[in-house]
Amino acid sequence: MGRVRNGSTGKIENGYKILEIAALTKEKKIPVSAISRVFSPEEDNFISENRETLNAFKSLTENFENKGIRVLDRGFDNKIFIDYFIRKDEKFIIRAKKIEM
Does 20 fall in a domain? Predict the structure, then answer.
């Protein structure tokens, strides 16, 4: 386990980070898990949360190509992620606070 922010209480506690990517399909009217990863910053091979997220995006692209539109919430309004989607020519929507490019 590592030190993480508890979203319910706002306190820093022991726990794991969770990365989840869900997809909507023509057949299902509910989100379907495409990628799910639980990790800790204490892992030996851990580099950063951004690296974990980029690896998940790369896996998504490898398995589903650039089909669909990537829709992300605040926190992903990071130049690293925006550059990735532009470089891969993927359609994306990010709810952002403020973007400085």
Answer: yes
Contact 92, 85 (CB under 8 A): yes
Domain that holds residue 14: 1-46
Q: Which two tokens stand for residue 4?
A: 């993480």
Dihedral of CA atoms 16, 22, 28, 29 in degrees, nearest 10, equals 90
Q: How confident is the model at residue 101 (pLDDT cuts 50, 70, 90)?
A: low
* Count of domains observed in the chain: 1
For residue 100, count other CB atoms closer than 10 A to its CB: 5
Report in angstroms the alpha-carbon separations of 23 from 61, 94, 97, 101.
12, 16, 24, 28
- Is 19 within 8 Å of 52 (Cβ atoms)? yes
Residue 2 lies in a domain: yes
**In this predicted model, what pLDDT tens digit does every residue of 15-72 receive, in sequence order?**
888 899 998 888 878 888 999 999 888 888 888 888 999 999 999 888 888 788 899 8
